[in-house]
Specification:
Helix content of chain B: 55-70%
Largest interface: A-B, 29 and 43 residues
Oligomer: heterodimer
Radius of gyration of chain A: 17 Å
Number of strands of chain B: 16
Number of helices of chain B: 20
Helix content of chain A: 55-70%
CATH architecture of the largest domain in chain B: 3-Layer(aba) Sandwich
Number of helices of chain A: 8
Shape of chain B: flat
Shape of chain A: globular
Chain lengths: 205, 681
């Protein structure tokens, strides 16, 4: 197996997500939701961090149920096999608290927590609606794209659309220089959902 | 780019950002060929086109290709291409149309026969319900007369070659000009566009030139011309082309300056080699030249990096697809397993199933968490044996179930082997990328060092106020470099402008991809019997998107990746999708010898594809030498009630040629003819 390093990175991320969704009141999580959350984690990371994407090892494709990365599936299998994750009755998985693990990457953890907080704040459906209506994803579906979704490049469609809103959003802030990326994203989503989605502009996203 | 440019472009988008164009292509009604001695038994040959299949049947040398060329000539004239570029000494481009050899029809005629008048063709066709009657001389290559809805149009006659030599302003009195204008008025197409459609899309000739794969390296980039022009307003494309042309022009100017600089450097190199002296001016020029060489190397590495990235991206997607497929297969496998060995599971470790998956997907031993490929292969080879000790989990007695289980297990195994191979390929590509990155780093370091040296020399030179004899060369290089940079910048600005237009055009196309692709699928799948679609993407390292066929889950970048007949029918499917997509009124599609490369198992499929196209009223014109009678018979016997009619060259060709034709061919021809006349009754 050649990509064990990537598998271990993914394991950390998945555990971090399954551990943290408890903070927004989720008892378990379905694999499909994991796929979408990681997709958001990756694509939004490019938005606030223009350089390298630290989640670059995920490669997403268009599938019937939304973005899909094989690495996430493999990781869930591994974590279930090692009993870090347990199956739940509703068809999801939950973090097995009797199995301890040490989180190593502070930056990734911080970012995942931010995304989960946004998820909690705006509700799963709205955020997932965002994933499915994501311009990058939509464009790939429309063009019958047969390569992976270009989530890392700042040239991708989602980032472009988000950047168009970014300018308007920044005008509502007195200064962006004191805000860190996480807080920025939080405020930004607040802005998007209050200003844009409420005005039925969802089709543009 | 200046803000004002953005505003202008934005305005243009608002004005032109309309949906695709509505176009009306010719609907063939009838043709009358007179005094054309290649067909001596039909010196006044008349034929009414049917909506359905028009079969041109004849042996070798009987004039099948000539017949379809007469049809094309009758409509658009003797034009081979709507435009071509010629460069003048000032690097300006001139556009002009290209003609076929003027004696083409004359040379196909037979001198044995006496005739009193020139050979000519008279064609009737409709464009958007307007009836055109057009008469052309086959020997002088001239439009002799034409009428629209019975109204004869006046104008001075002129041969096509003379017409093409005229200035634009002098053309308006000629009949040819009036014909073009009326065609434009009713078709919604420029006459040049009609030439393009008839030559490139409505006609699949004997040279079997495909258009789906042609990216313009040789021949026409039909995709480019078609989709930029017709899914959008043509003005948008004109603006894009203009920006591209400007970009090219400035780029060539900048390259010329580069050449000049190189020439001066060569001279200086020689000077320094000859007198052995070291001059700081020469050093500086040498460093600059080395830096430029490194830049060239870096550019090469970057372009390999881009194409390798595309490859990885496709592989990653394929990997995800395979894993999704294996997911579905796994559900089936588990179901069969539970039917077969339901009791065995009771004795298995409750985690056995997930352990096995961990081995299959991650190649990891679930007990010690170490990578292990042997476990993976063992489990795939013997799915009914314990991965740990190899003991059989339960003996299977039901033979049917056993077979089903074996089949599913095999399929499952294949998919996992594919996953493994795919991962290997990704690994190789990643390694290649790492090597390229290393090469890049080495070159970049070298470049930095040279830049430091250069600055040092520059600094000491300015400090010493050294005035070299060669200073005049250096000044010249400096001046040329400035000009080069300026032109490069201008070229970059124009390219950015062109890019903006391209993106707008692409977003218009994107809105239509799924409809277009599904049309393509329905044609292509009828022929190949596997899933076919079109992807609209930029996969060749350039920023421009184009359509690529995806056959059976794989992108076919090159036509050579398909067999000859597959490639032709994929191209037919592509063209017929275009015609179906833009369908407003009936039109025609000419295919020369479509049956030439078919093996017996594909004959029926091939006929089905064409019959599918004819579900909308259209005229399909097919030439055949009856090499492959079952294809033709399938068309003639079709159950779809699609009309078939014959243009029997065997009846009108020269007697001696007919007499030389084999009895087998003649009998086949008679059979088909009688079958068609019976069907028509």
């Amino acid at each position: 197996m050649n990509n064990n390093k990537e598998l271990y990175y993914a394991n950390e991320d998945i555990l971090c997500i399954t551990d943290n969704v408890k903070s927004i009141g989720w008892e378990s999580i379905k694999e499909q939701s994991l796929q979408r959350i990681v997709y958001l984690v990756k694509v939004l990371y490019s938005f606030t961090h223009l350089n390298e994407n630290i989640f670059g090892y995920y490669h997403f494709s268009v599938s019937l149920y939304g973005p899909f990365s094989g690495l996430i599936k493999n990781s869930v299998i591994y974590l279930k096999s090692d009993m870090f994750l347990l199956d739940t009755d509703d068809g999801g998985v939950k973090y097995n608290r009797s199995n301890s693990f040490v989180w190593k990457n502070v930056e990734k953890e911080k970012w995942i927590k931010t995304i989960i907080l946004i998820l909690g704040k705006y509700g799963e459906n709205r955020i997932f609606g965002f994933t499915i209506n994501d311009p990058l994803y939509k464009e790939a579906v429309e063009n019958n794209q047969v390569r992976e979704l270009d989530t890392s490049s700042p040239e991708n469609r989602t980032i472009k659309v988000l950047n168009e809103f970014k300018q308007a959003f920044e005008e509502t802030l007195s200064s962006t220089s004191f805000i860190d990326a996480e807080k920025y994203l939080d405020l930004y989503f607040e802005y998007i959902f209050s200003q844009i989605i409420n005005k039925n502009h969802l089709h543009e996203l | 780019m200046k803000e004002i440019d953005y505003i202008c472009i934005h305005l243009l988008f608002t004005v032109f950002n309309k949906t695709m164009r509505k176009i009306y292509l010719p609907e063939l009604i009838s043709i009358n060929i007179k005094n054309f001695t290649l067909y001596p038994n039909g010196l006044n040959y008349e034929y009414d086109f049917v909506k359905g299949v028009n079969l041109i049947i004849g042996g070798n040398g009987m004039g099948k290709t000539t017949f379809v060329n007469i049809i094309k000539y009758a409509i658009i004239g003797h034009y081979k291409k709507q435009f071509d570029y010629t460069k003048t000494y000032k690097d300006r481009l001139i556009e002009k149309r290209i003609l076929y050899p003027l004696n083409y029809f004359k040379n196909r005629m037979d001198d044995e026969f006496v005739k009193t008048e020139n050979a000519k063709v008279i064609i009737h066709f409709n464009i958007n319900q307007k009836r055109f009657k057009v008469e052309r001389d086959l020997e002088e290559i001239t439009l002799s007369s034409f009428s629209v809805d019975g109204n004869i149009i006046d104008g001075t006659l002129i041969s096509q070659s003379k017409y093409e030599a005229l200035n634009e302003n002098d053309k308006s009195v000629f009949l040819q000009f009036k014909y073009e204008k009326l065609i434009e008025q009713y078709s919604g197409l420029l006459f040049d566009d009609l030439i393009f459609f008839v030559n490139e899309i409505l006609f699949f000739g004997e040279d079997h030139k495909t258009i789906l794969w042609n990216d313009g390296v040789t021949g026409s980039n039909v995709q480019n011309e078609l989709f930029n022009n017709y899914f959008n307003s043509p003005e948008l494309n004109r603006e894009r082309q203009e920006a591209q042309r400007q970009a090219k022009y400035f780029d060539s100017l900048s390259r010329h300056r580069s050449e000049d600089i190189r020439a001066i450097r060569k001279v200086l190199d020689k000077v320094s080699n000859n007198d052995g002296s070291s001059d700081s001016t020469i050093d500086m020029i040498k460093f600059q030249s080395d830096i430029e060489d490194i830049d060239y190397e870096i550019e090469k590495i970057q372009s390999s990096r881009v194409s390798n990235d595309t490859r990885v991206s496709l592989l990653q997607n394929k990997l995800n697809e395979l894993i999704i497929n294996s997911n579905e297969l796994e559900i089936q496998k588990n179901k069969t397993e539970s039917e077969l060995i339901s009791k065995a599971w009771e004795t298995l470790h409750p985690q056995y199933d997930i352990f096995a998956k961990n081995i299959e997907y991650n190649h990891i031993c679930p007990i010690c968490n170490k990578p292990n490929d042997n476990l993976f292969h063992d489990l795939l080879e013997h799915p009914n044996c314990c991965f740990s000790c190899g003991a059989e989990i339960e003996e299977i007695t039901d033979d049917n179930l056993k077979k089903k289980y074996k089949d599913i297990s095999n399929e499952y195994k294949n998919i996992h082997i594919q996953i493994q191979n795919n991962q290997k390929e990704i690994k190789q590509s990643d390694d290649l990328n790492r090597n390229l990155d290393n090469e890049f780093r080495v070159l970049d370091l070298k470049k930095r060092k040279l830049q430091t040296k250069l600055r040092a020399v520059e600094f000491s030179k300015s400090k010493n106020n050294e005035n070299s004899d060669l200073q005049v060369f250096r000044d010249e290089i400096f001046r040329l470099e400035k000009e080069k940079d300026l032109n490069q910048e201008k070229s970059r600005i124009e390219l950015a402008r062109a890019d903006l237009f391209s993106r707008e055009i692409e977003s218009q196309i994107t809105q239509n991809v799924s409809k277009f692709s599904s049309l393509f699928s329905s044609f292509a799948e009828s022929f190949l019997g596997v899933t076919c679609s079109l992807t609209f993407d930029n996969l060749n390292g350039t920023s421009k998107r184009r359509f690529y066929p995806v056959i059976d889950g794989r992108i076919r970048f090159y036509e050579e990746e398909l067999s000859e007949s597959q490639r032709f029918f994929i191209d037919h499917s592509f063209r017929m999708s275009i015609l179906s997509f833009f369908y407003t009124t009936p039109t025609f599609y000419i295919v020369e010898t479509p049956d030439s490369s078919l093996d017996i198992s594909y004959e029926n499929n091939a006929a089905t594809v064409f019959l599918k196209f004819l579900k909308q009223p259209n005229s399909l014109i097919i030439t055949s030498n009856l090499n492959n009678s079952s294809f033709v018979n399938y068309i003639v016997d079709n159950k779809e009630d699609i009309c078939v009619s014959i243009i029997g060259l065997l009846d009108i060709a020269k007697q001696s040629v007919i007499q030389n034709t084999s009895e087998i061919l003649l009998n086949m021809y008679r059979d088909i003819k009688s079958k068609i006349s019976k069907n028509n009754e």
